Records
---
Amino acid sequence: MTETTPGLGLTELPEPNGTVLVVGDAGLIGSYAARQYSQLGWEVYGISRREVPDATWTHHSADLLDTEALTALIADTEGLRDTTHLVFGAYVEKSTDEELIAINDELLTSTLDALKSAGVPLKHVTIYQGGKAYGHHLGFFNTPAKESDPRLVAKHFYATQEDILRERSERDGFAFTALRPEGVTGYATGNPMNLLLVIGVYAAISKELGLPLRFPGTRAAYEVLYQTTDAELLGRATVWAGSAASAENEIFNVTNGDQFRWSQLWPKFAAHFGMEYAPPQQMSLAESMPAHAEVWERLVQRHGLVDTPFEKLVGWGVGDFLFHHEADNITSTVKVRQAGFADVLDSETRLLQLFDELVEAKVLQPFEAK
């Protein structure tokens, strides 16, 4: 546990005992998991289609859907063929549930088929789910949601992937864990599915335009209870789950461990950014913000920021969804704590710290607090 991040490090993580393959290591969740394993001294490899310029592990670019080529890569690469732990963070977005199930199930089965064909000594697989397992995307759901809550009638790839893993783990002799975060916050280059960047870039552009910071959602969404999961905390939970006997073949909600209302945080965001704050103004970020790409480019040039294409920098739809969700989003983390993972964070403090880290990394421009 560090002095600057109290709450991270409460759980004693396992000593290196195997070789880790992170599939989807270019993504937000996958990159943090790979980095956490690497920092702890594990042998870590990553596979995704995109390059990972800041990787502290060995990265390979590959098409996960080409099972034959993937098998050859794993079987013919020293280290990869020794894989004992699979962290599966790959994901492809589609517009319908049927398409989501088809493509994301195929990503998982292709990876598992390749590992088996390559003869790796696989012991554990970690996958990620989320609040949609409880119906967050449908509106109201029972809160605090527990892992024992019944599945939805509507099929979802979380459930189909879980069924695949239960069948394969029993047949092939490995264990698995499914982790359910919510609103993951952190930073990965070129990964727009990130609430932190939605808020930070929206604030930066508003400030450059001389405007106050406004919550861009509905009044009801402004007042409901919400929660987030820090990407570093989730990475630590991933390492814990990969080796803890109490995590074998289990599902766990993983969040920072607290709840908040946006009405409590947005005025504090404004003060942290050195901005005035005004009452909420409902709007569509996805419709409004692309028109300000030139404003962002001006900030990039003026402050020497990381030059990520604006369309790949922020997923505005993420903000639209979360800032217009008018029901509490709370999941219980009792189960994961009782199983042995104790890390917690104060979300308000951590979010402000993460904004500062984005400034230090030249992802956001410098700002002066009010």
---
Amino acid sequence: MTSAPWLSLSIWIPILFGLAVLVFSDRHAAQVRQISLIGAVLGLAVSLPLYSGFDTQTSAMQFVELSPWIPRFNIHYNLGVDGISVLFILLNSFITVLVVLAGWESIKQRVAQYMAAFLIMSGLLNGVFAALDAMLFYVFFEATLIPMYLVIGVWGGPNRVYAAVKFFLYTLLGSLLMLVAFLYLFDKSGGSFAILDWHKLPLAMTPQLLLFGAFFLAFAVKVPMWPVHTWLPDAHVEAPTGGSAVLAAILLKLGAYGFIRFSLPVLPDASHALSGYMITLSLIAVVYIGLVAIAQTDMKKLIAYSSIAHMGFVTLGFFIFNAYGVEGALVQMVSHGFVSAAMFLCVGVMYDRMHSRNIADYGGVVNTMPKFASLMMLFAMANCGLPATSGFVGEFMVIMGALKHSFWIGFLAATTLIWGAAYTLWLYKRVIFGAVANEHVAALKDIGAREFLVLALLALAVLGMGLYPVPLTEVMHASVNELLKHLAVSKL
């Protein structure tokens, strides 16, 4: 299909640049930043042909690369993307560029290690989305924990070690059961780790239910779904700004991606049987966690709970089994990547100046930072789901799909528009509007050219996707329709 190994390049270019900058010390911080930015931009550049050369008329895997890795166990270096996974490689590569720019001045110690962690993590995340061999997927999936663990544990806040260990243990323990499930499917498929081969396995209901439970523990923690969400607020609060942005924008998507790559196509009958439980847990995240967010006094913790509520929309969309729901959930995943990254980067802008995340320490920021306040207003509106922003498109599609499934499920899902507006606008009002609250706010300086560039690129993404989402949705149509056809045929 293509002469260049674009998927391998999108994985290994960031990783190689990340390893390269490790040879530099803090005396060469300027060179480290420049090399890291070149690596991130190249990583984005080699991912663009995946979109420009993508055939939207087929649900088959594209840009496939296949070569033996561990022949004795029939494990292959097998890569490929469909209309679902290609979007997240682009999102991840884009966010990596912004995170490198965002840490340009705020990170002053261990600069090389910081940049290396994000570049290596970017490549590993692209590997997760491109892997078509289950063991390759598992290696990339687990390896992403290491750089994020280091980012939180080394550059995080006062309780960084506690948050890093909690993040690592929660996500690692769930993944071990996923490995057991992979080995069972390997045996049942006659010795194949090819994920697409597993889609055709005629599994009985009991094994499907057990495997679904194993996958659920691995992926629900990553999303994170209620009630296994408690690690996320701690991780966000302690992580540096770049860590929070990548954690919310990309790492949370691994769990949702796992559901749509494994749970739904490999275990269709169990997915139908347990859909009621998944919908219930998703609605709890949308409604209850939305209420929890309102009570927060820490900006990052509020946005962290907001992420849990928005990701509840994603799992809800997957398990109502119609095109509006699944496509809306995928659009919501991409939109949340833009909006959550933007919100955390906005908090980072203020934290760099005042070294406080407490809402009570702010007030009247618009008087001293008008350009920043304008951009943050756009992201706050997108977080509320305002029409013409990316936040509206996915939520509207999922609500439409939920109404088609059940009026009351759609009604409860629609309450997110109320809760989202409540906690986001109240946050914005207390931080941005009003008279200047104190001398620290009075001394604030508006965003510079670099900060403006980062936030402006996200603003363009949020508005572009909100005003014209067709370039995004047309890519996923064929893959989503094929998935839903598979689910309908397999239903008991």
---
Amino acid sequence: MGTSLSREPSIHQLRLYLALSEELHFGHAAARLFITQPALSQQIRELERRLGIRVIERTSRTIALTEEGRALLPAARAAVAAVDRVKRIADAQQRQISGRVIVGTIGAEASMAHPRAVLALLRDRHPHMTLHLVNLSFGDHMAALAQQDVDVVFLRPPVTEDIELHHLATEPRVACLSADHPLAASPRLTLAQCADIPVVDMPEQVPRLWWDFWAVDPRPDGSRVRYGPVVTDMESLMHTVATGEAMCFLPAAARDYFPRPGITYVEVVDLPPSTSALAWLRQRRSELTIRAVRNAARQVTIRAEAGQTDDQPSP
């Protein structure tokens, strides 16, 4: 048994190997990993000893993956990803035990009236619960839920099937244009008038169903959208629009939360509205802290729509 265990590579060694396989340079990989080159080289040699194979070919100037090293990559990635997932789930359970809730938000969602009311009600009902807000980018706001890096997120649907929602409010969407664009002076627009303007695009990790909705792709006549530069967050989106490289459609609240020089917001008469929502991972809906947030969101909606104040826990 001792011999078998001594040949098992550690997750740490696999992480180092994956970084080296991407950089193919000991110096660059070591700098990325915040370790010294000799330490990295030693760990790779130990990995090879444990596996009984050579994973890289070394020369005086370059390194390359061996055939065996290339064959190892998919399993190494899967092993590291599995351990990362175990750690994320354990962290989420620890937050559950301690009453700590990590609340994600995209854009200015957490600053808007309904999310603020939900958080205020949570603090009132659960004074010992700790709320920690984190701002998420376009690329990671749904992935953060799936990976359990956050417990709930204030966002704008649509979402993937593994996520459940409580809708908080509905509002129109508006066109966000460069102030220099000829259409920026229009009192209102139609989607047909916007047909020839490129729309900002999203990173590839963003679920396409989400950005198809926000880009209105395809348009009502079946035509496809022409995309411009990829943006990762609101500031890069604002900059791209202001320079005239592309446009986008945003919630009407953006007029108040994201006023920028060089940006104009214009009503679009045939653009379907958007909703703001609280989101959580479907498989975690019954956890105590997440139920507490869900119940607070439901109560805020009840108070806003019907004026009721009695607590009515959600199922």
